[in-house]
UniProtKB/TrEMBL annotation:
Function comment: Part of the ABC transporter complex HmuTUV involved in hemin import. Responsible for energy coupling to the transport system.
Xref: InterPro entries: AAA+_ATPase, ABC_transporter-like_ATP-bd, ABC_transporter-like_CS, P-loop_NTPase
Keywords linked to the UniProt accession: ATP-binding, Nucleotide-binding, Translocase, Transport
Signal peptide span: none
Record Gene3D superfamilies: P-loop containing nucleotide triphosphate hydrolases
Family matches, as CDD domains: ABC_Iron-Siderophores_B12_Hemin
A GO molecular-function annotation: ATP hydrolysis activity
Protein name according to UniProt: ABC transporter ATP-binding protein
Coiled-coil spans in chain: none
Species annotation: Marinobacter salinexigens
Lineage: Bacteria, Pseudomonadati, Pseudomonadota, Gammaproteobacteria, Pseudomonadales
Amino acid sequence: MNPLNAHNLVIDVPGRPGGQVMDFTVEKGQIWGVLGPNGAGKTTLLHTLAGLRPPRAGEVRLGSSSLAGMKRRIVSQQLGLVFQERHDEFPATVLETALIGRHPWLSPWQMESGEDIEIAEQALKRLDVAHLADRLVSTLSGGERQRVAIATVLAQKPDTWLLDEPSNHLDLHHQVAVMQLLKARAGDGCAVFMCLHDLNLAARWCDHLLLLFPNGEACWGPAENMLVPSALERLYNQTLVTVDVDGAPVFVPAQV
Ligand SMILES: Nc1ncnc2c1ncn2[C@@H]1O[C@H](COP(=O)(O)OP(=O)(O)OP(=O)(O)O)[C@@H](O)[C@H]1O
């Protein structure tokens, strides 16, 4: 796979002057989590990495190519994005939505083949929404809709997965199921880069973390180096209690 590289990247957060230069590469097999308070710029970073927003400085590269100069079709064969907010106003069924994931692999005006339908159906099954295949997406619950969005990227088969709050709307079982799916994709040689509000999900599943502060400051590295209670308390402006569960830290907000 072509690794996703932030090269001297400064994200363009509206109204925020300056911004830290970021330089990191999301390598094959890695699972990155982006943590930060509301408004810190997590979605802006994700959309910049996906090529949907221009950076203020620097560039995003896929392998040795600058993302800005690549055809969107080629980019979407390599990068998949699960958005935080979706506006599913177009009346489409769950299966039709999952099939959108196959579009980067079809030539213009080419119809989906039986194999594409099979891939989409398998993706729906993997996300536990196959029974909803004929339902309009607009009639689904929040968690069902989130799982369809993830199934659509699974059908897309990108090497690098970008996800904005993938655990949004998911119950505990499906949160774990989605994290297991992402871990399995990483185990198969993909890379995962996701924004998370749940610090403990990040601590449990991510091997790399990027902390994004509201003033634009950022730091990143292996998770064990980033999970420093004092840094996390500063990040969230919240006192934390750290407890050890099965040898791993779990962070709980202090009551006072
Ligand atoms: N189009 C826009 N016009 C004005 N301000 C914007 C625009 N898009 C984003 N912002 C601002 O940029 C900042 C960063 O937004 P962003 O969505 O990246 O934050 P976030 O860390 O993902 O937040 P959250 O945790 O709430 O999802 C916020 O203060 C937001 O209000």
